[in-house]
Amino acid sequence: MLDVSTVMTRLSSSSLGLIAILLTVLCWAVAANVAHDLFTTGVNPLALAGASAMVATFGLAILHSFGGGGQTRAMNWKQFALGLVLVFLVGADYIAIQQLPIAIAIVLLFTSPLLVVLWTAFTTRHMPSQFVFIALVLSILGVLLVSKLLESNVAQVNWFGIGIGLTTAVFFAAYILLSEQLIGTGEPVGLLLKAYAVASLVWLAYQSTQGLPVTLLTPDHFPKVLAVGIIGNLLPYLLFLWSIQRVHAEQAAIVATLEPFVAAVLAWLWFGQTLTLLQIIGGILIIAAVTALQLKKD
């Protein structure tokens, strides 16, 4: 006979996991708009990526020490790789936000679950189902629409921005795959601290070739840099790791597809950014494809 208390505990854990994903979505959407605000004043995206990673590292170190993390295990190669993926993911994400309307940059990022499915099919040598191919076609059509390739002169398309936006999807897919493999090897704070420590060292090495980013230290910019580091890096990635311990990755992906909508609303309120009808349709196609793909049980 099923234990009622066990069921309630599982339901409670699942609900907390979904709430964590919703908070993750809100954090990323707010941080994207704060970052865009900084870019409009001339802040370099890569300088912001490095500074926000260091803020996140410092915050995670404080959390880890107060949490009584105990003896820290040696870093393995997958944890090191996760840190490198974070470097490229955050850097590419901020460049995409600088180059494109915020909602479009985030929609392109969220094509990543399709890449995860295709990578899994390739590594397991199982051809994707017809359903997966339909979802892939819908997402490609969605990308064509949000990038305005079907309604603009080819010369007017921001090819660099679109390319970087699609690159973020590749790095986010790699982050998802590595996170799912590593989440059972330690608690989220310690795992993420190692990843961000690697990322911070890489950014420090890069920044040493560029000089001190003095624009980030001005009274107008520094509070926003701290906000991006905490709200855009520390909290959402920590919540994401914590949530996938409590809900299936499929459920997390479905809820996370709300982010483009939330970011678009904030960008409209914050900067007056608007999308064309075809871009809205394209975004809906991508979100529908990803959501349907995650709901489908092969």
Strand content: under 5%
* Helical amount: over 70%
The major sheet is characterized as:
none
Radius of gyration: 19 Å
Give a quick set of tags describing it:
mainly alpha, 298 residues
Please describe what this structure looks like:
The longest helix is centred in the first third of the chain and has 36 residues, at 4-39. The two termini are 30 Å apart. This protein has helices spanning 4-39, 45-66, 77-99, 102-109, 112-124, 130-146, 159-182, 188-208, 222-243, 249-256, 259-271, 277-295. By secondary structure, it is mostly helical. It has one domain (14-295).
Brief account:
The chain is mostly helical. It has helices at 4-39, 45-66, 77-99, 102-109, 112-124, 130-146, 159-182, 188-208, 222-243, 249-256, 259-271, 277-295. Helices cover 76% and strands 0% of the residues.
Layout of secondary structure:
Blueprint: H1 4-39, H2 45-66, H3 77-99, H4 102-109, H5 112-124, H6 130-146, H7 159-182, H8 188-208, H9 222-243, H10 249-256, H11 259-271, H12 277-295
Helix pairs in contact: 1-9, 1-10, 1-11, 2-3, 2-8, 2-9, 3-4, 3-7, 3-8, 4-7, 4-11, 5-7, 6-12, 10-12
